[in-house]
């Protein structure tokens, strides 16, 4: 019965206008089982959280349209007062490379992701597993972050590299 209710609530999110019910989306995800999402987070209804992932989202964090959070059995922690733009992917899961197996994408595994307080992640950025982003860092649009980012820095590119220090 709980699976049916969860499925119904996810379908309900698809019907909502993306921006109008941004506080309600956080509350619906809390009902689905993501209890560590602040009820004061502002999340567009088109945001998808999938997988066996533990998600923590701090208060007054904004997450824009079509953002994906997930990827296996890991913890993704997003601090308070963060701004995450549209079409961002925060993905904790990946695969080992298996040149001898039937598939090159071998055994899957996941790594935690930590995003500090006050971080700004611009449109289309990708944050990969095992990464820690320090507080008030800026991730440029379209960047792929595969290594830790220091606090108060701007990074960008594929892969993301230091552009400048803010402090």
SSE arrangement:
Elements: H1 2-15, H2 22-32, E1 42-43, E2 48-50, E3 54-57, E4 62-63, E5 68-70, E6 75-78, E7 83-84, E8 89-91, E9 93-97, E10 105-110, E11 113-115, E12 120-121, E13 126-128, E14 132-133, E15 138-139, E16 144-145, E17 153-156, E18 161-165
Parallel strand pairs: 1-4, 2-5, 3-6, 4-7, 5-8, 6-11, 7-12, 8-13, 11-14, 12-15, 13-16, 15-17
Antiparallel strand pairs: 9-10, 17-18
Helix pairs in contact: 1-2
Please give a structural write-up.
The chain is an alpha/beta fold and 167 residues long. The chain has a single domain, classed as Hexapeptide repeat proteins (UDP N-Acetylglucosamine Acyltransferase, domain 1), CATH 2.160.10.10. Helix content is 15%, strand content 34%. The chain contains two helices and 18 strands. The chain has helices spanning 2-15, 22-32, and strands spanning 42-43, 48-50, 54-57, 62-63, 68-70, 75-78, 83-84, 89-91, 93-97, 105-110, 113-115, 120-121, 126-128, 132-133, 138-139, 144-145, 153-156, 161-165. Helix 1 runs antiparallel to helix 2. It is globular. The N and C termini lie far apart (52 Å). The model has no long low-confidence stretch (mean pLDDT 88).
């Amino acid at each position: 019965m709980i699976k049916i209710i969860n499925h119904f609530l996810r379908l309900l999110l698809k019907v909502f206008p993306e921006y109008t019910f941004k506080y309600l989306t956080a509350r619906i995800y809390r009902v689905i089982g993501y209890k560590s999402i602040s009820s004061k987070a502002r999340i567009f209804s088109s945001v998808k959280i999938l997988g066996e992932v533990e998600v923590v989202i701090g208060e007054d964090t904004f997450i824009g349209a079509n953002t994906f959070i997930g990827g296996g059995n890991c913890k993704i922690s997003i601090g308070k007062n963060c701004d995450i733009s549209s079409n961002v992917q925060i993905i904790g899961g990946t695969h080992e490379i298996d040149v001898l197996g039937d598939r090159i994408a071998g055994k899957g595994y996941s790594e935690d992701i930590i995003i500090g307080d006050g971080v700004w992640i611009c449109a289309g950025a990708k944050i990969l597993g095992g990464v820690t982003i320090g507080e008030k860092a800026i991730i440029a649009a379209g960047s792929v972050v595969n290594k830790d980012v220091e606090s108060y820095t701007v990074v960008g590119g594929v892969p993301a590299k230091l552009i400048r220090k803010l402090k």
